[in-house]
Amino acid sequence: MAHPVRTAAEKIQPWLVETRRRIHMNPEMAFEEVETSGLVAESLAEWGIAVKTGVARTGVIGLLDTGRPGPTLGIRADMDALPIQEVRETPYKSRRVGVMHACGHDAHTTMLLGAARVLAENPALLEGAGGRVKFLFQPGEEGRAGGRLMVEEGALDDPRVDLVIAGHVYPAMASGTIGTHTGPTMGSGDKFFVTLRGVSSHAAYPHNSRDPILAAGHIITALQSIVARNVNPFDSAVVSVTQMEAGVAINIVPEEVRLSGTIRTIHPEVREMVKTRVADTIRGIASAFGVEAEVDLQEGYPVLMNHGGATALIEKVGGEILGEGNVLPAPLSLGSEDFAFMAKQRPAAMFRLGIRNEKAGIVYGLHSNYFDVDEDVLQLGVSIFVQAVREFLANPEPYAN
Question: What domains lie within the chain, and their CATH numbers?
């Protein structure tokens, strides 16, 4: 017998594809999601869902109320694109030069819209359940901390969200599967920006210089020893120098070098230790070479902690929608995710939605300029969200505590 939620989601699959392609062709960068948020707000209003716009600048919140007492489940999707030039040739290729949905946020937005539509148009699915659903459409996930701004502006309050979930497309897992993980799930992402100032000279007379390039080379090499010789091998950490700017001419030792990079960790104590060691290493080596060092360490996204009960909710409904054999363990990731800000405030969990389809050529990783989504999974994401609403509103106790 067909699952009623799967049946309802399958009926709107053509609309899901059309909506995802519309968003994909018109990608918008962080806090510029004007067209996308307009589409979201208009669609929610059309289905009779209460709408609040202008949250975190371009975010949208929809509220569906059953009219019966009960808890509030939040579901979050991100809307922003990346500064990447799409090269994969499809009928729905990005129309905006240098901007692309290379992380699946177009699919996330579409699936959450689809869940809202299914729930609004099929009220019988919530018979016997009471409470509310908050649809949280968030801007600025890609490095701009839109999730933190949503929290600061009360997105999880009035009415208070009791539990919040999210999904993220994942090209390393096959379509038709999801991945879950309890506890620390995605790493913190901190940034460092370094300016090294020495003394410039003619390249033929290097003894008259204080060479910041030479210092930078030793710093880059030494930074790799922080993880190798300071972090327990059973813990996780990454220190990467990802940008270097230096030099004005081939025959001049420059006065200044700029470096920047990222620090990724899982455990709070490791995070603080690594940041301290990065700053100390840079300053110490710079001093040894007679070069001044300015170090700017900027705190980024915190570790994403998946709540046990919220994860159990996803696993239960995932098994009902996909079959228990298609709910798999998700690997720990040192990628960072600003859903972590919501997870610090409420019981929360993010699951990974497999999109890999080798026959269709959907094999490229997140942030690749060839990235694409297996659109057959859109109805699956919708179904998981809708079934999570049905389960949580009918029986919240096992999951929110």
Answer: 4-186+303-400 (3.40.630.10), 188-301 (3.30.70.360)
